Structure formats: C-alpha cells, structure tokens
Amino acid sequence: MVDGTDNFPTRYLVNDACVLLGKPNAYGSIFRFEGQASVFATKDGPCYRCLYPEPPPPGLVPSCAEGGVLGVLPGMIGMVQATETVKLIMGIGEPLIGRFLIYDALRMRFRELKLRKDPDCPVCGTHPTVTTLIDYEQFCGVVPAAPGPVTVNNATEITASELKQRLDRGDSLKIVDVREPNEYQINRIPGSTLIPLGDVPKRYSELDSEDEIVVHCKMGGRSAKAADFLRSVGFKKVLNLKGGILDWIDKVDPTQPKY
Prior knowledge:
By secondary structure, this protein is an alpha/beta fold. It folds into two domains: 2-139, Rossmann fold (3-Layer(aba) Sandwich), CATH 3.40.50.720; 151-251, Oxidized Rhodanese, domain 1. It is built from ten helices and eleven strands. Strands 6-7-11-10-8-9 form a six-stranded mixed beta sheet. Strands 1-2-3-4-5 form a five-stranded mixed beta sheet, sandwiched between helices. It is elongated, with a radius of gyration of 22 Å.
C-alpha cells in the first residue's frame, strides 16, 4: 500500500491495516520544506507505530494546508514511494525497510536513520494489543464537529462582517491570531494578539477568561482547534472567526494582501 495521506487518524489506520493484512506500507509525508519516506509493516521490519507509538496532541501540528508546503515536495517524496513500491513488487534492490529517509529541500540534503522493530509495539510487537481496526479519530483525539449551522468543533462562530460591526460600536473584544509569525507579518486584524496554535496550551494564562475572545487563523481551521482548547480549560466566551483572515480581507479590508 502507498500511504499518501495527510492526517494522523488515517496514517494509523493505514499502518494497522497493513500490519493486520501482512501488506508492506510505502510511507511518505511532507511538511513545509522537508519530506520523509520509509517502508513499514513488512514481516521483519518496523511499522509506523514503532516510530510514533502515540499521535501528537490534537491541534499541535498544523496540516500542510495550514502550515504550507514547498510545491515540489509531493513530487519528490512521491517518486521515492513509487520507486519503493516497484522494488517491493519485483523483489529487487534494497527497500527502505528499517531505514527512515529524511529530505531537507532547503539544504538539498538526504539523511537516513536506522529504525528497529519495537517488541512492545501494540500492533506488530511480540504481544500485540491491537488486533483489529479501531476508532482512529478517537485514538488521535479528534472531536467531531457538533451539529448545527453555527458551530465548528463546538466553538461558536462569528463572521467577518459581524466582527467589524461589533468593533465599530466599541464592544470589548480580545482578538487572538493563532497563525505563525511569518503569516502575521503578511496581514493582520488591527489590535490582534499573536499566539501561534502550538503555543496556546503554554500561553493561555496570558488571556483573561472573563474577556470575550475572538480567535482567528487563515481560514478558520486552526482557530477552531484553539477555541476548543480554550473552552476546555474554562473560557466561556470564545468565538471563532468564520473563514479566517481571508474572509476578513474579502468582506472588510480588501487593501491587505492575501497568501
């Protein structure tokens, strides 16, 4: 199987299915300027869980759509995956079994790490505890969106036009931008405070739970996760900007650049 997925629940699903079915997994992933590739789930080699036993906390790692990726990376890593697949089918060469290839596009450098099969791995180890497919969204801590037209991941939304109206009439709102610093330099909502999504669990104490808070990102996905977290630690008045700053630019301030 060739793993071209871009989210953790599906990666763990693909890995476990390959182990249970006895099928090799030609793995690849990309983010910003780096790519990774390996071959998992062979008889004597490690699987994806041997490398990553547990998924990262929800919202800690932005997706490629949120964090960006160099346009040529999918082709580079996809070529490696295709090559490994052909080698496995034909039974030739030395596949990336027990080897983890890392490609750094900025330095044009390939590195290789050695991987070993974990005897305590819950799916391919000596005494596996995962013997059938499970609920991978639950395993990765992904909370489905609550029903209803005005909620995203349980965070109440506000539109760009509504936010502008409330700011114009002088409502006291704390605007928190959860994008990365380089994004913040391109465009921003006046008066916003930058706290990147990955820093929210460490810096939420800088915010006052009595304030009405509006969180935003580029398109609304990361800010929905941030709003979920803030609500989970006791913040009651949290609004997610629907459509993110791109919608703010479209509806309120078209003078700002997009990216």
